[in-house]
Specification:
single chain; 913 residues; alpha/beta; six-stranded parallel sheet; five-stranded parallel sheet; 20 strands; 10% strand
Length: 913
């Protein structure tokens, strides 16, 4: 097998396996191209080549698409712009940054602390960040509004080290790394966490894959704000710093086409290609940079590779026969990693020694000179050229693939080692070598005195290097990262738009989904905040009845609508517009959550609040994209999450995959999510008004929440708002909806959402058939009741001398007679959340297990959550208490054929909203 043949998949394959009928003529053409490059430069040669390719296509000459280029820098040396900074000064304080970042992690790993950290990521990535900090990253005081930067999570020590040199953090802060409670007031979070450091970090990124996805939608959201006339974002860039191993996450690649389709040339991905995952090589047998180049190019992105440092330029210029490039092309990543773990002599023998030509190229170089042939990611000029080209490119997003060495400069124990990601501390010898490499003025005696606490280094704010660094940041608009929460205030409390929710549906039936849509449509017309509402919908708008918004609000598309719509003559025609209000993400829940996050944090990223309302199949929310909602909570996103077609038995024709019996339980695990399960339109109105006031009214102590509201597709007669409604109780989680009218043994029926009508029916059956008087409570939030109960317990626990506060659910039920029976269209664990706070006997009915396709009546009878099941369970508890005859429950079960799924009568047919 010929050298490199087994790796042919990593070559461009333009001539691979094609016969050369006239090698002499081929050589003449190549010689002509070489002369052109030598005399007129690569830019002219590039134009000639493109012209020839265009002509070849016109003449039907089959030329394959070039998805990968040779394993060299995209920008030729003769096209590199001049580096505008003082490289010597910038290198000086980069050394201090690298030292302080490593020392911070090392000190945090001393025996009495041992909280860990990552040394190697920033050590290898410092150049790609510092070129950005010194010349590209614009702060919030920049006239253009500032950039949004998604920092690679494991590189956080480098950002803290820079903040230390800038005077934003002190040594006590650095020593609080990963000790957020024990060093409160001087604590640094492990990774970028805005919720933990709300004035510092802006974007959480260490949950792999979510950073790339959110960066894409952040760039789209910037354009959305601009195109809708809310804010001029034309001079703002979005940067996302990612790892090559991270690109294996499906979320990292799955949304690239959106950025290309929307022509998001305000977006720059910078992928740190150190060829390593957390445990070893990314593609030991292949080439991850080539793979990513092909993938991004195929997705429609502009690709810039930064492979080699300036030390390689002369060697490549001498490579007239292409022997060196051929070796570069055919060497796999596993070998490249090994080369950086060995020596210059090893590289001479195993890399350059592959061909006589390449061996001769380095014959005059010493082993040290060979070792100092750097990779592109450690060269200021190469990185600067790439960033400048990226920010100036128009019409496409750009990815910059930067080759680096993980653990660069940390010594032989760290550099390029498979275990380097997990290595958190340096030996005394490592410290001394690292100090010498970086020329840090700290003596051996100081290091030897306490190897676990080597000192940080700061030359003082008057040092010329620090003054230079601060001047660069001042010119670019201030320090980054920085988060600001101040935003334009919205007047929501006086709005009359909520009145429509109080009216009910009259003689017509309407599901709570439709009740929500009617309210939603009215809110979008509100003069104060309507234009700031961002409806976000996967490809199910017609399912939810939101297609009524298409003709007026229109679907956002930065390219407009350049086709004749097939339904253009219909009232609900599909209409797209550059200034459209609706973000229609397609069949893409992950992208929808990313869009929700970008819009829901616009108040902090831009000072311009948007109100995202994300509507989706409830089953495909927290179950499918739960991690993204946690990231949204960390970023302190605000907005409404509408779980439509909720419940395990409401959409039973769709079957298991659509049967949601647990989303409120999953939502309850996220502390940033306020969860409601309303039964009627007027409940939805009060919940949304309260949500808007809390999140955007400017008076609540904790506005950084998301409201999850479940709505159903089962039509019922929507009642108008009752007189004297206890709105405060409704918002706290439960209120007395229908007191018992008759006399007899008492019971309390608790129900939420679509199950409230079942409880009302059970109330009537209990009264008519068994002379039992039952009160019906509408439970708008099992989760908020539980949280209130837990808070009361915590308060009593921590304040044993104070008078205990009773939970709201306890005070609501303590004077109510009889057992308490709870029912919902969810698994038992949902209403079971409040069991410990319910006084007296408590029984729960729920839809546990898998969903299935059948009628609503049959499904509810199967799960024993229908009206008659509520009746029988109530009678059982009353019999157990001795308040009715012990034989009654069995008689009732037989009377209602409780074990016969075909005898169920609870719920109507159909599934219209």
């Amino acid at each position: 097998m010929a050298a490199g043949e087994e790796n042919s998949h990593i070559l461009s394959e333009l001539t691979h396996r094609l016969p050369d009928g006239d090698p002499e003529e081929t050589a003449e053409w190549i010689e002509s191209l070489d002369s052109l490059i030598q005399e007129q430069g690569t830019e002219r040669a590039q134009f000639i080549m493109r012209s020839l390719l265009q002509r070849a296509g016109a003449q039907s000459v089959g030329v394959p698409m070039v998805t990968t280029t040779d394993y060299v820098n995209t920008i030729p040396a003769d096209q590199e712009p001049d580096f505008p900074g003082d490289e010597d000064i910038e290198r000086s304080y980069r050394r201090w940054l690298r030292w302080n970042a490593a020392v911070m992690v090392h000190r945090a790993q001393r025996p009495d602390i041992g909280v860990g950290g990552h040394i190697s990521t920033y050590a290898g990535a410092s150049t790609i960040y510092e070129v950005g900090f010194n010349h590209f990253f614009r702060g919030k005081d920049h006239p253009g509004g500032g950039d949004q930067i998604f920092f690679q999570g494991h590189a956080s020590p480098g950002m803290y080290a820079r903040a230390f040199l800038e005077g934003r953090l002190d040594t006590e802060d650095l020593d609080g790394f990963r000790q957020e409670k024990s060093k409160e007031g001087h604590a640094l979070s492990s990774y970028p966490h805005p919720r933990l450091m709300p004035k510092f970090w802006e974007f959480p990124t260490v949950s792999m894959g979510i950073g790339p996805m959110n960066a894409i939608y952040q760039a789209q959201s910037n354009r959305y704000l601009h195109n809708r006339g809310i804010k001029d974002t034309s001079d703002q860039q979005v940067w996302a710093f990612l790892g090559d191993g991270e690109m294996d996450e499906p979320e990292s690649r799955g949304l690239l086409q959106l950025a290309a389709n929307d022509k998001l040339d305000n977006l720059n991905f910078v992928i740190n290609c150190n060829l390593q995952r957390l445990d070893g090589p990314v593609r030991g047998n292949g080439k991850i940079m080539q793979e990513l180049e092909a993938f991004f190019r195929g997705a429609g992105w502009n690709v810039i590779k930064v492979v080699w440092g300036r030390e390689w330029d002369d060697l490549l210029a001498k490579d007239r026969e292409g022997a060196l490039v051929e070796v570069m092309n055919t060497t796999v990543d596993g070998d490249y990693q090994t080369y950086k773990g060995e020596s210059g002599g090893f590289v001479r023998e195993h890399f350059f020694g592959q061909t006589p030509q390449t061996k001769e190229m380095v014959a005059d170089l010493s082993d040290d000179e060979i070792w100092n042939l750097k990779r592109g990611g450690h060269d200021y000029r190469k990185v600067y050229a790439a960033y400048k080209a990226a920010t100036e490119f128009k019409g496409k997003p750009t990815v910059v693939l930067v080759k680096t060495v993980k653990g660069y400069g940390l010594g032989t124990h760290f550099e390029a080692r498979n275990a380097t990601h997990q290595m958190k501390k340096l030996t005394l010898a490592d410290l001394k070598d690292f100090r010498d490499l970086l020329r840090i003025p700290i003596s051996d005696e100081v290091l030897e005195k306490d190897p676990y606490r080597p000192p940080y280094y700061h030359p003082g704010m008057d040092a010329p290097e620090i003054k230079y660094m601060m001047e660069r940041r001042a010119q670019l608009g201030g320090s980054v990262p920085e988060r600001r929460a101040a935003h334009k205030a919205l007047a929501v409390s006086e709005s009359k738009s909520f009145d429509i929710a109080k009216r009910g549906s009259g003689k017509q039936q309407a599901a709570t989904t439709m009740a929500f849509v009617r309210l939603f449509k009215e809110l979008m017309r509100d003069k104060e905040f309507g234009a700031r509402i961002v409806p976000i919908i996967p490809d199910e708008a017609r399912t939810f009845g939101i297609d009524a918004f298409f003709p007026t609000a229109k679907i956002y598309n930065p390219n407009g609508q350049n086709y004749l719509s097939v339904d253009r003559d219909l009232v609900l025609a599909y209409k797209e517009s550059t200034s459209g209000q609706i973000v229609h993400a397609g069949i893409n829940e992950a992208g929808s959550v990313a869009a929700f996050t970008a819009a829901g944090t616009s108040y902090s990223t831009h000072g311009e609040p948007l109100i995202p309302v994300y509507v989706f199949y409830s089953m495909f929310g927290f179950q499918r994209t739960g991690d993204a909602f946690w990231a949204a909570g960390d970023q302190m996103t605000r907005g409404f999450i509408i779980g439509a077609t909720a419940g395990r038995t409401t959409l039973t024709g769709e079957g298991l995959q659509h049967a949601d019996g647990h989303s409120p339980l999953l939502a309850s695990t996220n502390p940033a999510v306020v969860t409601y399960d309303p039964a009627y339109g007027y409940e939805i109105g009060h919940i949304m008004r309260a949500g808007l006031e809390r999140m955007y009214g400017g008076k609540h102590s904790d506005p950084n929440v998301m409201y999850y509201i479940t709505v159903y597709n089962e039509p019922i007669t929507q009642p108008s708002e009752p007189e004297g409604l206890d709105v405060e109780a409704l918002l706290k989680g439960m209120y007395l909806l229908a007191p018992a009218k008759g006399q007899g043994p008492r019971a309390q029926l608790l129900a939420s959402g679509v199950s409230v009508p079942w409880a009302l029916e059970a109330q009537q059956i209990l009264a008519d058939d068994w002379n039992v008087a039952a009160d019906v409570w509408s439970v708008t939030s099992w989760t908020e009741l539980r949280r209130d109960g837990l808070a009361a317990e915590e308060q009593e626990f921590l304040n044993p001398k104070a008078e205990p506060r009773l939970p709201f659910v306890t005070t609501s039920l303590q004077d109510s007679a009889g057992p308490v029976i709870a029912v919902s269209d969810y698994m038992k664990a949902v209403p079971d959340q409040i069991r410990q706070f319910v006084p007296g006997d408590y029984a729960v009915l729920g839809a546990d297990g898998f969903g299935f396709s059948d009628t609503r009546q049959a499904a509810r009878r199967f799960f024993k959550i229908d009206s008659h099941s509520v009746v029988v369970r109530t009678l059982q508890l009353l019999a157990k208490r001795g308040e009715i005859d012990a034989s009654v429950p069995a008689l009732a079960a037989e009377k209602y054929q409780l074990l016969n799924v075909n005898a169920g009568t609870t719920g109507g047919a159909g599934g219209d909203s």
